[in-house]
Every structure is written in C-alpha cells, then in structure tokens.
Amino acid sequence: MALKALDVYKLLPKKNCKECGDPTCLTFAMKLASGKADVDLCPYLDEHAKSVLGATTRPPIRLVKVGVGERSFAVGEEFVLYRHDKTFNHPPGILFKVSDLWTPEEITAVTLRVRDESFTRIGTDLRFNGIAIENTSDSPDTFAQAVATVEESADLPLVLIAKNIEAFNAALIQIGSYQPLIHAATNENFREMSALAKKHSCPLVIKAHGLNDLTGLVKNCVAEGAKKLVMDLCPQSLGDFIITSTAVRQLAITRAVPDLGYPVFIDATHPPLQDAEIALGIVKYASVIITPPLSPASAKAALTLRQNIYTDPQKPIQMNPGLYRVGTPGKDAPVLLTVNFSLTFFTLQGYLESTRIPCFMLIVDTEGLSVLTAVAAGKLNETLVRDSIRKFEVEHEVSHKTLIIPGYSAPLSGRIEEATGWRVMVGPRDAAEIGEYLHEEWKKHES
Amino acid sequence: MGYDLNFGWNGAIGQVILGATKAEGGTRNISYRIGGGTTLQFLDGNPASPSPLVALEICDNPEYWSPIIKNYCGDLVHNVHEWAKAAEKVYKADLVRLYLTSTRQRNFSDISAVGKTVESVLSATGLPLIIEGSNEPKIDSDVFLKCGETAKGERLLLGTAEAGRYRSIAAAALAYNHSLIAQSPIDVNLAKQLNILLREIGVQHDHIMIDPYTGALGYGFEYSYSAMERIRFSALKGDTDLAMPVICSAIDSLTIKEVREAEPALQDEIALQWEFYTGIAAAVAGAEIICVRHPKTISMLKNAFTGMRSGAVFSEVK
What's the CA dihedral at A186, A189, A194, A195 to 10 degrees? Predict the structure, then answer.
C-alpha cells in the first residue's frame, strides 16, 4: 500500500518551487511517504500522479483548520486508535454554542468569556476555542446580526449552524474569509453547501447517520469541490456515538475506507447528558465539540480531561530540579526530597499545601523518572542527593540537617546518610499520607 | 457494503461474582457477575450487556475523609451503619465500599471492633460489599481474617493486595471464599506479575479484580487511562493473566488542588464533575466498577451509562 519516498519523488514535478511549503520536492516526497503532508499542497501534479498518490500518501485523517489568526485551531492528522500506540496529536476544539435569538448582551458575554477565560495547569493555559452560532430564528438578517455581534468582540474561530442557504450567504458575506466551519451539508443540500464552502474556502461539516451514508456524502461533497470536511455522525445515543466514532477512526487509520478520513464533529447539547457527551467526545475521537456555555465546574473538568488525554505518552513531563518552597518556610522547616517527574511533584506539592506546614521540596534530577523507577534504575542515588544538596545550597536555607525521603527510596537511607552527613527520615510511600506523617513524625522529631 | 471492524480480539474477560443472595448462601439482596466481555465496554452494541457498577466509598472513621463529603453527608459520616443504609436507599449505589479507616490509627488493636463494624454494615444494606482493610502489615492478617470470617458466605471483594503485601489478604479470601483487589502502580506488566503471584498461592482468577491504580484527573489520570486500555487489550488478545475485570477508584479526586481550593460555592459541583469525567473515561477504557465518594456522582454516572448502553447496532450498515 504505502509508497516509498523515492517512488513518490518520481511522480512529483521536481521543480523545487517551494510552493508546498517544503524546500525541495524530495523533502515533500518524504513527508508524503510518511503520511505527514497532503498531495493537494502541490499545484503542479497531473491527474495521474494525483490519483496514484492521493489515497496512499495523505494522512489517514486529513488536517482541517478552523478560523484564522492566533486562536485558529487545526484538527485531524491522527494516526492511532489508542493514545499509547503513539500519541493523539490535535486536541479537539471545544466551542460554546449561542443562538441568534439571544440578546446581543448575552451573545457578547459568552464571546468575551471564551476570549478571556483561561485556566492554568502544569504551566499550560487551557482555553475554550470559539463560538458556534445557531440560526434558531431562521431569519438570515437575525443570523447576520448575531454573527456581527460575535465578531465585534473577538477574533475567534466560529461554527455557523443554519438550515437555509440565505442565512449562510448573509453571514458569509461578512466573515467568509475567516474560515468558519459551516454546518451542515446533508444528502438534500450538499450541492449548495459544497458550492458555498468552495466559494469561501471554508471547512464544511457533513451530516449523515451510518457509515454508508457518511461515505456517500463525503464522495459527493468532494466531487463538488469541497475538500475540507468534518463529519457529524448524527449519533442516536451516547452508545451510538462510541460505536460509530470508533468505527470511523479504525476504518480511517487503517485506510480501509479512505473516505472516512476526516475529523469528527459532536454536538454535545443534549441535557442532562452533555457532560457525558463532552467526556466521550474527548476520549473517543471527536475533533470539534459544540456545547452550551459550561458551568465553571464542567469547564475545568472538560479542559483537564482534554489535556490529560492529549498529553504525549512518549514524553514524561519534567520539572526543573531545585529547591521549591511550600508556603514561607523558616530555618527549621522540613526538607522533603523527591524526583523531578512532574506528576510526583504536583501530587506531593498538593498534599504539602494542604498540611499548612511550610516546608522545602528538594527536587532532584531523575530525568523525569518516578521514585520507584528511579530507585530501580539507580538514577536516584546518594551521589545525586549529595550533589543536589550542595548545588541548591540547602544548608543555607535551613538550620538543621534532616532530610525526609520518599518511602520507596527507603533502601537508600543508609547510603544517603553516609554520603551527605544528613540524618535521613523515611517518609510514607503514598503522598496522601504526608500530612499525617509531618504532623506526627516530624513534630516528634522536633521535640 | 460491509465494513470489517476487526481489532484482532479473540479472548474474553473472566467473571467475578460479588455478593451472595440467600439462595446462594449469603444475605445480600442481589449478587453481580462482573466481567465476561469480549470487546471494550459499550462497543458491542448490545443494550442488554451489563453497565459498569458504581460503588459508594464510605468509612468507619472520617477523620481524614474529605471535608466536602462531611459537609454534604453531615452526621451520616459518623455513623457507618446509617451511611451504608443511605448508600443503598438514598444515593442508589450498586455497591458499598467500606474503608476500615479506624484500623489506620496508631497502635490499633481492637480487632473485635472490626467484626462489629462489618456486621453493622452487612445489616444496614443488602448490597454486595467491598471492604478495605488496614494499612499496617502487622495487623493485616487479623483484620482481614476478621472481615472474612464475619462476612462468611457473602462473597466480599477484599482490598487491597499489592506486590509486597498480598499474603494476609489472600489467606482471608481463600479461607472464606471472598474475592480480592490486586493493585499495581499503573503498569500492565506489574499487574500481570501480581496476578501470577496470587495464582501461585492459590487464588483463582475468578476471585481477582484488577486495580491499575487511578490517578486523579489532571494528576496522572492519563497514565491510568492508558494502563486500563492496555490491560484490557492484552486480555482480549488472549492473555489470561490479565483477563480479570477492572475496578477504578480515583481516591485523590477530592483532595487535589482544583477541588480542595475551589471557592466554597463551587466546591461541591467541581468535586462531582471531577469524579464524573474520570468515571466516564475509565468506563470506556474498561473499568467494570467505578468507585466514587460524592453521593451525587452516582446517579449522574448511572444515567450516562444507561445512555451509553443504548447503542444502535450497525444494522444500518448493509
């Protein structure tokens, strides 16, 4: 099935024109061969080359960009069914839905919220991605006004949801060049919708239930010239979504049904199940998720789940080694040693904060390994501890020489005492017990 | 045209039976056959397949239990009998998971009190029980044997066995025909290793549930999520040493920063959304029992599972 880079190269124009964004035809060929570029990026391919290359070289799920500018987002270009097979690449865009029947004040409030709200976790700002505007009024003028209201407050990616072409025309006259995602082409209106998408170069949602209808509609829209597609699977239930979305992903990444190789859209607006729909959208392959403006609690949980699932499992997240403060520790405050695996750090830090005992965290460089694995691999050892105490000048910060080490590193306690001259106390294995430990063992040690 | 959705799965998950009704030699109102799937949960398109079960976690000494739960449940948390009763009658849990936190006090030695607590909870509810014993190897054996003996015939799920600490709990499970939870730190190979160790001392596969350890959402949940998927795929591909049902308990959910430090008016809602999002994701990754601490999460999860079960089959695909 897959072609080698040199086979691909033979089919390219070899002009090195750079119009595809790559410096040479050969580098473009290498990208094509590994499924990381789309054939359509080359303007000089003949039909034969296109047909040979088309199906086998493009990413199994095409990349689709929504919106323009800083907040635009791209989805698709996924290669695996399970994140541990490699990684998921492009987190789904989550957009808040407003109706054109809302007052301008209501619409503006939601727009500003999406523009400004952000929630920082592990050094990353988590945000919602844009606004979906629904033509509930059925009036093109009202729709156009609602779109204008959103545009006045923010440059955010938009999804336009309407039933009639006039409404789209009225909206796209204003914002057609901002590449909003338009929803949706169906078996009935795909000609008009494809023409609209082509004219404004917008991504287009196609809407059909069942894999046969979906592939049929994809073919029809592509034939009409709409190439940037997103698929609304019209799930009949949560279960239907899980099954259909899994089937689409599996059939797309194996290239068994290349016409299903487009990102998936989910309309998570079915109370009281919308939180379940969002969670399922995130874990089961949705790329564009539409939801009513979420409560602060749902918002944080949804963004955190998305961050978790789209973290690259191939790269442990590391903290910079150093001496970290919890509260404002004095000279007599406890010093707790642990590794620089970010998860260990944040978990321990959380529990230490809740003890309300100011203290120091001595974070040593185990290259992101957890305590258990760092001890087993010999990365956490007495030399590292000794050098870290010196390097981070722990002796200037505290007036004592007692170090609390993680429970799983207990076998090192003697060697650490010898190498550092510090007294070692073995802490609990589970960070959850650190509060109790400090209140009992550390207090006892002090008295 | 037909679509071949073959994932290369030919194994099946083993079954564990929890609880025993009168006819089965116990006193529970219901018993559950957990596991038995041949695909990922919710992927079989069969509305009749069992949904994941939701267990409410309670304890007999709430000193270190989350203040969120103490606020929500009020005086209940000081009366484990009434708490267990409410778990079934008011909160509509499928299972009760009792943490014997009283045994985790320093120098605890009142083993007969353990028996009384277990009796009290057994009389409070007709639901099958999961019991979490002590945290101290020195008293493990006494505590687990006392639990096992007191609830003889009830087919408990006893927790929690780990690689360095599984003999006492296995002995109690074997002596009184209970099942046990085998927990390993987020790693498919360690999970397998522990199951083999347990088998070697005589614990049958149909008496083990795997706990891959669940990190809280935002604090390592992604590792647990993938560990659950990997355990389940290995099992479906035929590895019988991993073909046990999975139990998931993100016990840190209520103590992580986002929840603990939420403004008071929002705290309850954040706590349950945190448990809810975790529970949904864990269920699609393979967990058959989802444990929660906030009573309100129970109905949210159960409603969602019902919706996830009512999947249309691919009948429209010709």
Answer: -170
Please check whether residue A410 touches B, CB under 8 A.
Answer: no
pLDDT at residue A15, as a whole number: 87
Give every CB contact of residue A22 below 8 A, 6+ residues apart in sequence.
A28, A31, A37
Rounded Cα distance between B146 and B273, Å, is 37
Which residue in the set B3, B218, B303 is minimally distant from A308, CB to CB? B218
Fold (CATH) for A322-446:
Rossmann fold (3.40.50)
The CATH number of the structural domain formed by A5-57 is 1.10.15.40
Q: Which residues of B touch A252 (CB under 8 A)?
A: none
Which residues of chain B have a CB within 8 Å of the CB of A216? none
- Weakly modelled stretches of chain A, pLDDT under 70: 1-2, 55-57, 123, 447
B219, B258 Cβ separation under 8 angstroms: no
Give the orientation angle of helix A382-391 with respect to helix A413-420, to 10 degrees.
40
The proportion of chain B whose per-residue pLDDT surpasses 70, expressed as a percent, equals 96
Q: Is the peptide bond before A184 cis (omega within 30 degrees of 0)?
A: yes
Per-residue pLDDT, B312: 40
Strand partners, A96: A131, A291
Out of B260, B277, B318, name the one closest to residue A305 (CB). Answer: B277
Residues A17-65 pLDDT 10s: 888 888 888 888 888 887 777 787 888 888 788 777 776 667 899 999 9
Closest CB from A284, A301, A353 relative to B274 = A301
pTM here? Answer: 0.86
What ipTM does this complex have?
Answer: 0.95
CA atoms of A113 and A106, how far apart (whole Å): 11
In angstroms, the CA B153 to CA B21 distance is: 9
CB atoms within 10 A of CB B241: 17
Could you tell me if A238 lies within 8 Å of chain B, comparing CB atoms?
yes
Question: Which one of 1.10.287.3510, 3.20.20.20, 2.40.30.40, 3.30.1490.20 gives the CATH number of domain B51-312?
Answer: 3.20.20.20
So what's the pLDDT on residue B313?
39
